[in-house]
Amino acid sequence: MLLPMSVTDALATSSPMHALARLGRLRWGALLLALLVLAACAVAGVALPWLGVLQALLTLALVNGVLEWGARRGQPPQRLVRVGLLADVVVLSELLALTGGAANPMATLYLLPVLFAALLVPGGGFAWLLAGLAASLYGLLFFWHLPWPTAGGDAAYAFSLHLGGMWLTFAVSAFLLAGFVSRLAQQLAEERAALASAREALLRDEQLVALGVQAAAAAHALSTPLNTLTLLVDEWDPAAPAPEQAADLNVMRTQLATCRTALSRLKEGAETEARPADLHGLLQLRLAAWRALRPEVALETTLPAGEGPAVSVPPAFWPAFYNLLNNAAEAAGTAPVVVDAAWQAGWLTLDITNTHGSFDPARLARAGLTPLESSKPAGLGLGVLLTHATLSRLGGHLALVNRPEGGVVARVRLPLPERRQE
């Protein structure tokens, strides 16, 4: 009467309203199948109490329609699920009483409403109540029932019909068991994987929270010496030192200004969303700013030509982008860092390629989940971790891939829907 996949779908349902809707669709399907069986019996000449059987099916259809109407009227879905399952048991008992009683092999279909009650109704009390009702009605069918249907009084045909019903009941039970157990095993595996992923995310978040506390303390401690150094550099007479020293002073001023800006952003916390702007122009400006800070790095860029889409790039994205550029520059040595950009269907894709070196599989597997070992003199190995966390918060993701010809590609994908410029 009900398909195995329908049982597994009901198992996966977590919302009472969804459970009610699924049961309603299954009930309409069962009624359609019952009508097809009745049509086959009429063609084969099987003697049935047609009025009683049609009345039972009409009652179930009426109940199902009332339940759907109640759901649209905002009735509690759990109550409607219970009423529907009770109706299934009562109508099935009436059909069995009209077609041989306990001798009808389809009596094992009593298990289906009980199964759905155990899966879909929390607590378990209703499932026990429904199981007791089904067992009681099944027992009464031994005493109160009409004879098993025959075709022209042919006892041999009646026995073959009984055997066919037994086979059909066995097939339904076997498919139900296979579908139920396989889906349950799959769901348990998915839940274990989700728990493992959530545990890793929790550990990563704990690391980021601890890092944020330490960063706030470091920002507070560094603000005074940075201000002191800025005053000293500003008071230094640019005409006194040699020309090469004057250039160094300008670099110091630029670096100190960058440090002050970074600390200001850290103290202010989350920034407001940027206004829509030309994506290609933004990328060019940001890459030019980074190139000014790292003039010794050979940077090769491939940006789309022409005017780009108007998008709002979250301010938190740019520090994450710079982290990847700095990591690629440190690892590349004298080799160039290559940046390829593309925007399609509301997604920005950035490939940051370091053409030198590679990651071993273990480090690739841990990239973005834990701090990586850093070979830089003052490197903490946190750049990839922070970038991964930032992109995850913004709805994007980061992938690190070793190139066959050598080097590592950091592929960034960030959702950037096109917007109108104000």
Automatic annotation (TrEMBL):
Source organism, top-level taxon: Bacteria
InterPro entries: 2C_sensor_his_kinase, HATPase_C_sf, HATPase_dom, His_kinase_dom
Record EC number: 2.7.13.3
Record organism: Gulbenkiania mobilis
Enzyme's top EC category: transferase
Keywords: ATP-binding, Kinase, Membrane, Nucleotide-binding, Transferase, Transmembrane, Transmembrane helix
Keyword Membrane recorded: yes
GO molecular function: kinase activity
Name of the featured protein: histidine kinase
